[in-house]
Design a protein that fits this description.
Blueprint: H1 2-11, H2 16-30, H3 34-41, E1 60-61, E2 71-75, H4 77-80, E3 85-92, E4 101-103, E5 107-113, E6 115-124, E7 131-142, E8 146-149, E9 154-159, E10 166-173, E11 183-188, E12 193-197
Antiparallel strand pairs: 1-2, 2-3, 3-10, 4-11, 5-8, 5-10, 6-7, 6-9, 7-12, 11-12
Helix pairs in contact: 1-2, 2-3
């Protein structure tokens, strides 16, 4: 494989057709499969986008019924198309946060701006639409912090200041192979009562 690497360095500036013909000859001599050579020739240059420029990944307003204030999100996974998670960059305008929810796969948050908090809850009782909750943990989130939320754990997260925005990357893991993650949302008082499951 090292010899293949040296060959590519020496020949990559040639027209693709000539590279393919040369690689075919190389493959015959070195016992590489033509399919592998074809995949090498078809490689594209790496592409990139910037989260923080207007020309980068577009920002869309999040669904208002899932948040307490203005929130926008950039769908990173729509650009890079990962197969095991959904990835978003979410910005919470001053003081806004998510409503109570859980994910059927785990979620990882990576803070990129401002100050926020993650509040974890425990469900009490067996109700599906109306039930009691208990706050069990509150985590302060600052720029650079990373935190993992296990699957099916009730929580909220968002900004804690009305003077600045808060933002994080959210990585929502697939609950199982080829099964996209789902988020289940609830209306609550953020203290003890859940009054309905949101559509």
């Amino acid at each position: 494989m090292l010899r293949l690497h040296h060959f590519l360095i020496q020949n990559w500036q040639k027209p693709r057709r000539l590279v393919f013909l040369s690689l075919t000859k190389f493959a015959f001599l070195q016992s590489f499969e033509l399919r592998d050579i074809y995949n090498i020739v078809k490689m594209k240059n790496m592409e990139k986008d910037n989260l923080f420029t207007k020309k980068g990944i577009p920002s869309k307003k999040a669904k208002t019924n899932y948040f307490t204030g203005k929130v926008s999100a950039k769908d990173i996974s729509a650009k890079i198309k990962p197969s095991t998670e959904k990835i978003y960059h979410v910005t919470f305008k001053r003081g806004s946060r998510t409503k109570l929810h859980f994910h059927d796969g785990g979620q990882t948050l990576i803070v990129t701006k401002g100050k926020g908090s993650l509040i974890m809850y425990k469900k009490l009782g067996n109700g599906t639409n109306r039930f009691k909750i208990k706050k069990v943990e509150s985590v302060t989130l600052n720029k650079g912090d990373c935190v993992h939320i296990p699957a099916k754990r009730f929580h909220t997260h968002g900004s804690v200041s009305k003077n600045e925005d808060f933002a994080h990357i959210a990585i929502n893991s697939f609950p199982k192979k080829n099964s996209e993650p789902k988020t289940i949302w609830f209306e609550s008082d953020f203290k003890t009562e859940v009054t309905e499951r949101l559509p």
